[in-house]
Amino acid sequence: MSKGRYEHKGRRRRRTFGSKSLALVLACVLLVGGVIGGTLAWLTADGGSVTNTFTESDIDIKLEETKPVDKTAPMVPGWTIEKDPKVTVEDGSEDCWLFVKITESTTPGLDAYISYAIAAGWEIVEPTNTSGTLATISTLADEIVIGRKVYKDDTIKEFSILGAGSYTDPMGDEDDFTITWGENQVCVKPSVTEQMMEAITGTGKTQPTLSFQAYAVQLFKTNSDGDKAKTADEFTAAEAWARAADMNTTP
To answer: 106: which DSSP letter?
Structure first.
């Protein structure tokens, strides 16, 4: 009987796992399986997005004249005629070269009848041998081009084309007859005769004309901070005018 009890106790000591121990092992296995098969909590961040929109740029100009009415005026020798062509660079336009091409009729020649001057602030671009000089006289050629720089932060963007001037006509009724006029005017030369008037009067005859055409070309070749003192990245007047060649037609 005692031997049987001892053997029974020995068998109980050889049990290595009980029901609780087995449950704990299974729980650990399930936990490890859950970590491997589940979603790991990595550190993440979203930096957002950036979208660039590239907008248009432009240069808008307009050329207007209110006088003379209907763009036509009779010529009286020695008199002045109100004539106010103005060119405006519209707000929002980029920095630009502003040009005006002035064309005189040659048959009949305007210069025989009319004298005029260019307003202050313009420089002569064509003829090329006068480039860079201020435009003050109208006897350089039958067609001239004048230009000026206009910056987008300028407060004045409307410019008269015709300026004040004077003309001395030795063929007038008096020796060295001089006539003066103000801005936005031209003068009829005192030397215009009745015969000259008859030459442009009647059916099929043409009258002298003075025409204006305006152009604008961007001022800067490359990025600029708009500093008017830094001209290295600007087109010269001649370079800019050459880029207007495809628009350059006689009005």
So the answer is: B
151-178 burial, b at 16+ Cβ within 10 Å, e below that, comes to beeeeebebbbbbebebebeebeeeebe
159 Rama sector, left if φ>0, alpha if ψ -120 to 50, beta otherwise: beta
Of the chain, the percentage scoring pLDDT greater than 70 comes to 73
- Residues, the chain: 251
Write out pLDDT tens, residues 87-129: 999 999 999 999 999 999 999 999 999 999 999 999 999 886 5
For the stretch 154-203, pLDDT in tens is 999 999 999 999 988 776 555 668 899 999 999 999 889 999 999 999 99
Q: The dihedral of CA 146, 152, 154, 160: what is its sign?
A: positive
Q: In the chain, helix, strand, coil percent, each to 5?
A: 20, 25, 50
Q: Please give the model's pTM, rounded to 2 decimal places.
A: 0.77
Contacts of 207 (CB under 8 A, 6+ apart): 105, 108, 200
Cis bond before residue 208 (omega within 30° of 0): no
Rounded Cα gap, residues 4 and 214, in angstroms: 127
Q: Enter the tokens of residue 144.
A: 């001239």
> Under DSSP, is residue 131 helix (H, G, I), strand (E, B) or coil?
coil
Structure tokens at 116: 């005029």
